[in-house]
Amino acid sequence: MASKTGRTWLDCKNPQMADHFLRLAVKSLETLYSQLMSRGDAAADITSSKADVEKDLLRILSCQAESAVSQENSGEAKVYMQRCKDMLQRIPKDTAYLSLMCYNFGVDTYNLRKYEDSTFWLSQSYDIGKTSAKYGPGPDVLAKALRLLATVYLEWDCQRFQEKALDAVILANKECVSTSGLYLKIRILLRSEASDNHIRAGLDEMLESQVPLEVCQSAVKLLMSEDREMLAFEYLKCVSQHFGSSPDLGAALVLHVELLLQRNKELLAKQKIEDIITGHYSGKQLTPDALTSLHVILWDQASKHFEAGNYAEALQWYNYSFSFFKAGQMEPNLAKLQRNRASCLLHLQQLEKAKEAIKEAERSDPESIFTQFCIYKIAVQDDNVQKAVEALNAMGVLSKSPVSSEDRLLLSESAASCLLCLAAQIALENGRQETAVKALEVLCESSKDEAHVLMGLRCLVRLVFSSAENSADQLRDVNLDKLLPYLKQALHTISHQSHMTAERRAEDANWFRKIAWNSALQCESRPDGMRDFFVLSYQLSLLCPPDRALLMGQRTSLLMAAAASLELCRKSPHSTQAEDLTLALEHIQACWEVCKTLKASGNLPADPTDSLLLLYEFEARAKLSDPKVETILESVLELEHVETKVLETMAGLAMEPPAHFPQLCKKALRAALSLHRKQPQADPTHCSKYVHSLIKLSLPSGVSEVESRVLQELWDYFEDALSIISAAPDGFPEMETLWLLTQAWNAGILLYSLAQYHEAEKWCGLAMSFIRHLGSLRESYEMQMSGLYSEILDRLDKAKKNIHTEE
């Protein structure tokens, strides 16, 4: 029971606990063994029991050795193993078990790079295995231990232990010859810097032992890596002769080509390839694997020449590869090859041959984005704009489809984006700006790579500005129209990006924000464009880290967007104004929020922003017939500094169709008049305008509006006019005085017609009071009005007498 418990603890990687139970098991077995020995050995059952005890004891001792090895206690493990070896004479059946255990110890210590311990255990494995031919592990296992022993010596210190390593592998090959043993012998000979003759003998031994061609190829590569070039090519020739009738001969020929190219013997490699091509079509066909390897070598060599700018050489190597394809053959690899050939021909200015090659590529693989890219390159060089655009559109469609597995071997997931970027670059290098714009637009529409999309949008913006610099005003407007969707897409991309850092996101947003701002400033005659660009500038600024300067920019953007919306409204029919007015209110409300944030952050310099916002809100609500418009005027009047110009403008807006708020208009005019008259030097002309408007708004338009309240309000305005005239008789416009006179007289006549004689006399008298303030017109009007006034007074007296008579 103790032995099983100890074994379990060993399996659980807890050798300390295992040791305790294993010692108990050994002690128990030794006690049992001594009891059995004390009874003598005559009885058969006692002899059998003694053998069982010895067998159990060997197993436990081997477990103790295993525990010691795992605890890196090499000395103790060796003691336990020696006891086990001593017991093998009595129980030889455990020879294989003990040999394999030592082999495992050798493997474990080798993996831990404890080479000295590893050589001890591997030697023990071989020695123990040789003690019994009947019960040993077999020659193949012994050879395996010897090969590992040779490998340990090789990696430990080949110069110091080269003889031991060589002896071990030779002995292994005598025990059981194997491919790995023969190959290991070559490795040891090379590492020990043996002569070519010794190595040649080892190589001949490999051929005599009928090792596979792959092993011979590995030996050739090993020779090349150890700078035994002459011997490698000599052996390769022998291998080719040895396997001359084998269908796998092609692999050796391809290796020959590869090694020649590695040593920069390109001319010899070409001769060898031409021989292979000749043989391939004369009965010595390469296997599919060998042919694939050769294609890889040929394409790699062509690629090196292409990158170095040696396009003629690159084409020759691609042509070698093309020689192995049959006429009419169709497969993706052939399409790739034709694309590569077309690229070489394009660089060599052989446009017609390039067209033929890419036509074949399209026939073999029409759904390849790379084929369309080559078609595009040829079209650009051929100045075929329509063909180039068709290819770009096809690339855009294909970029949204999964890339084929063959293409994935060549390019990353963003292959389509890279190709479209390169397409734009090619167009610009060839002076085809419109084509470049199309390529970038396709990139931005089809790519899922946010970085590529933003890069493409930046390029598009720069191209728009470069076109606009030398354009007439009309063309500049067209360019700005192109710019707007680019900025909208940039906003959408930055808002939804998930793979970029916060710093990169802020940088992109700020760049496009500035573009939107500058574009808005160029739309002085286009309020729709100005509004859209300022709104975009604001929206992009929301994606930037907030600071005072940015908030000021947001405030200005929203203020200008509101102003532009109102300007659009003024130019639109009344039936279509609601949308623009609603948008203006949205911008105004957002601007108020920004203003609150700014005011909360510290002292804000005095500026007209609040007045303008209230003015814009007043206009929007007035034209929407919103009752809240009255509160806006109150808010303006509550401002610390109110300009009369603002009140004057609000008065005009209150009556500008479709708005109709006469009372608000008069209230604004009264406030403006009051403010203006409080100034140190009030301008009579301005005052007259305010009074004129107030009187015009208050004049009864018909009999139904003649009320005492209305007349009193009107009378007050005329009195204000008189006081203004009296205060500045020389500065008041004469025609304005005449207008006031006329309006007061007309009011009196209206009252007279309504039999309100007392009021009529009062108003006519008011009119007469303006005569003395006339200048050059006074004399003529005084004569006319005096006569009329006398006549009116006479009629009033008669009318009054008639009334009394009737009573």
TrEMBL record:
<dbReference type="InterPro" id="IPR011990">
    <property type="entry name" value="TPR-like_helical_dom_sf"/>
</dbReference>
<dbReference type="InterPro" id="IPR013940">
    <property type="entry name" value="Spo22/ZIP4/TEX11"/>
</dbReference>
<keyword id="KW-0175">Coiled coil</keyword>
<dbReference type="GO" id="GO:0051321">
    <property type="term" value="P:meiotic cell cycle"/>
</dbReference>
<keyword id="KW-0469">Meiosis</keyword>
<feature type="coiled-coil region">
    <location>
        <begin position="334"/>
        <end position="364"/>
    </location>
</feature>
<dbReference type="Pfam" id="PF08631">
    <property type="entry name" value="SPO22"/>
</dbReference>
<protein>
    <recommendedName>
        <fullName>Protein ZIP4 homolog</fullName>
    </recommendedName>
</protein>
